[in-house]
Every structure is written in structure tokens, then in C-alpha cells.
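Please predict the structure of the following assembly.
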Amino acid sequence: MSFLSLTNIAKSFGPRSILHNINLSLAEGEFVSIVGASASGKTTLVKIASGLIQPDSGTVTVGGQSVAGFVAEAGMVFQNYSLLPWLSALENVRLAVEPAFPQWTKAQHTAQAIKYLEMVGLGKAVRKTPAQLSGGMRQRVAIARAFAAEPRILFLDEPFGALDALTRATLQQELATLCGAAGRPVTTLMITNSVEEAILLSDRIHALGRGPGATLSPGFTVELSRPRSAGLLMHDTEAVSLRHRLAEFLTSGAIAPALVKEVA
Amino acid sequence: MKKTLVSILLSLVGIVLVLGLWSAISAKIAPDLPSPSKTWEDSALYVTKPWEKRGEMDQGIGLMTAYSLLRVAKGFALALLIGTPLGFLLGSSPLFFRMFDPTIQILRPISPLAWLPLGLILFRQSEPAALFTIALCSMWPTVVNTMQGVRAIPQDYHNVAKVLRLSPWRKFTKIMLPATLPFMFSGYRLSLGIAWLVIVAAEMLTGTPGVGGFLWQEYNSLIYSHILLCILTIGIVGFFLDRLMGFAEARLRAV
């Protein structure tokens, strides 16, 4: 049962074809990652999937409805945080809570924002502005902002791309916890350039070939039980083989058909 | 500390040199130009009793400056009230920009001396005509800077507004306005400078009491030292106005 689906998506910027013949569908509550090299059109793909930009051809539907403008009840985490520098962490998160729950009182909005900032470990920094926070803390605020609106769909555009490896690992675990703790199933589409990150978090992984005119590989199902740890992924045979197959696709641009587990 | 002391000393040296040049010119080249000491002699009454009103056009320099500042404040406020929204419209709507940008480019370089007679025809009184001229001449930097500020808002912030589903009003108050504020203030600073330039022309032509009006009257009464008094006053007040706006601007940029 497909909840979010992209059909025959193509997009060019001027004469440059970015994406070509992209088909993707996510079941409700599924976590799907798209792995690709830089400048392969990943960000364009997630912007099309979320309705931020229009494809040249093809359709995007959510729950059977075609999408016009940013998808309803969806959240997004950007690579560069995109926090508003003149607002405190609390105000940044509350800005997302207010339109999501218009029937609530001001106190409820604040309580919800603080609750999610505490969940990402920023309970003591709610009054700080983005300039006073480190890169990792800023991305935590951005994640809290996305989750605090309690979205049905989450779009993550290289959410940890700007962070150092250690911070990145911590935040990946926190994101996995947040996804597991959400009250209702959150359908998530994540864009990343890290195969490990994709394996750690996803139910299914697609690789995006090199542009121009990039196409999507068939899905690689991740059959690993949760919770997953980065250490386990280093040694688990299933994880290691998956990493090899993905790396092979990404570097060669072609997939050895025998190694691919097709997803219907 | 030492550095500021040196720069204060240097600026004093500069002032002394200019005063010397002024004395030399009045002594050797232009006998009609009052020397610095003569200027001070004739102006002392106006400077030492700045708030004394002896007649409609014979008042202390403080009162004269206050009249001019009040007039500038009104005209400047009018310029901001019109210029800021206009800048927002031009910056956010490409259609509006294409429609009005050529007109604005034509109106921008028009001198206050050209607008004032039109103001007098329209309002038949000198005071509103002066305000009209100040507003029309000084609003353009506000319009242009606000417009550029709105255009400089990163696409990311527009995306945030879409993702968070902000209402147009929330987007304006939480994103557009704070993002544009530093640009707006650069515009305000330039606008205030122009408003102060225009005031002299406006008062000269309308003969209203104020620094400019006084200057023109004393020219007609052949009291040339008072012209220099007015010129110095205009310069000093303009300097402090600019410093004041610069200070406000720096505070905003620090946020």
C-alpha cells in the first residue's frame, strides 16, 4: 500500500537534465533513504517529493491525492539547519508548532516546543539563539522543530551533512529514537551521502546514480532488527554485504543484477 | 586609548588648518568673506543665547535648528511611511517591480528645487510643500535598500516559511521583516542625510524660520557672517544625525 509515491519524475534546470524517470513509493510508516554522491540531484529529488518545487513531468501523490505546494502535515530538516537567527531555539520550534496546532493556547505551544527541545537534549539551551549554539546543537533544534509539529511525513535533506563524524553518529541514534518514539507511524524520506547512515536508519535504501539525468536504483531492503548500532553494522554480515552492494552501485553506476533484492 | 587620542589630535590639526585657510582667503582673496574671528563676533549672540526669540526671523541658533529638525523629522517620517512599504512591494513582487521600477528611476534624480514649486502649487502653503519635498526627495534610498533587502532573503528562509506553513502575516513579521531590517536601516540612514540636505533648500525657497530660512534672510540682509554660522550648524547637525543612525544600524547588525 503506497502512501507517498513519485511516478515518472523528470526535472531539468535549463539544458541540464537533473533527474530522469524517477519512480519511488513509500508505504505508511516506512523509512526510505536515497543515497547518492554530491551533486547527483538528491536535494532536487526531495524538494520535488515534498512539493517545494514542481517536476517538469511526472506526478507526486500522498494518500492518493496529487501534491500542490508543500505536502500537508509534513516536516522537513534541511542540511544547513535553516534556523532563523533572530529567534531563540524555543521561538524557532514554537514557530513550527503554532500553525500545526492552531487550536492550542500559547502555553500549550510553548510546552510542546520545550518538550521536543528536551527530547533532543537542549532543555537548558531553549533561550539561546542559533549563533550561540554549535553546529550539532543547531541541527538538534532543527530536528526538534520538525518533530514538534508531529508530522505524518518527514523529509530529511542530508540532515547530518554539515556535522563532524562523532556528532553525526550521536544525532543519528537520537533520530532513530525519535522516530521510534513518535505516537503514530511517521513516513520518512531521507537523502544522504552516507551508506552507513542509510543502513543504520532505513527500512529500504535506493541509490541515486550519477547525473546528469540521474535515475534511481531498485530498492535494497534492510533486514536488520532494531535498535541498530553503528558497531553492529561494522560486523554484521548482512550489513557488510549491503554496504558493498550499495558502494558498488554508487561507484560504477551499474548494478550487478544477481546481487539486487528487488522490492515490489 | 592612545590611538583615539592621536586621532582626536589629528582631527583638531585638520580643523585648525582649514580655519587658517579660511582666514587667509578672507584676508587676501575675498574681502567680502568674513574671517573666522569676525564670524564668531557677529554670531556670539545667537550661539550664547540659543533659545532666545527676538523676532520671527531673529532667533537663537538652537531654536532655528529645532524648527528645522522638527520639519525634517516630519518629512523623514513621511518618507519612511511611504518608502518602506513601497520597497517591500517592489522587492517581493516581480510584476510590481517591472511596472514601477522605470518610473522610480526617473523620479529619483529630481532635485528638491524642482519639486518645491510643485508642492507650493499643490498645497498653496509653504509648510506642507516643504514636507512634500523632503519626503519625495529622501524616500528613494529607503525604497531601494528595502527592496534589495527583501530580494536578498535566502531561498532557505522562503522554504522554511513554506515547510512551517506560516500565514502571510507570520511570514512577514517573523521572516521578511527581521531579515530586511539591516538593509532598511542603511536606507533610513541615507534618507535622513538627504532629508537634512533638502531642508535648507526648502526653507530658503519658502522663507520659513529655520536654519535654511535664516541663512537666506541674512544673505539678503548682507550679514554674511551669519551665513557661515548657518553653514557650520548645518554641517555639525548633519554629522550628529548620521552618527546617530549609524549607531542604530550597528546595533541592528550585531543581532
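The CA atoms of residues 57 and 186 of chain B lie 35 Å apart. Residues 36-254 of chain B form a domain with the MetI-like fold fold (CATH 1.10.3720.10).
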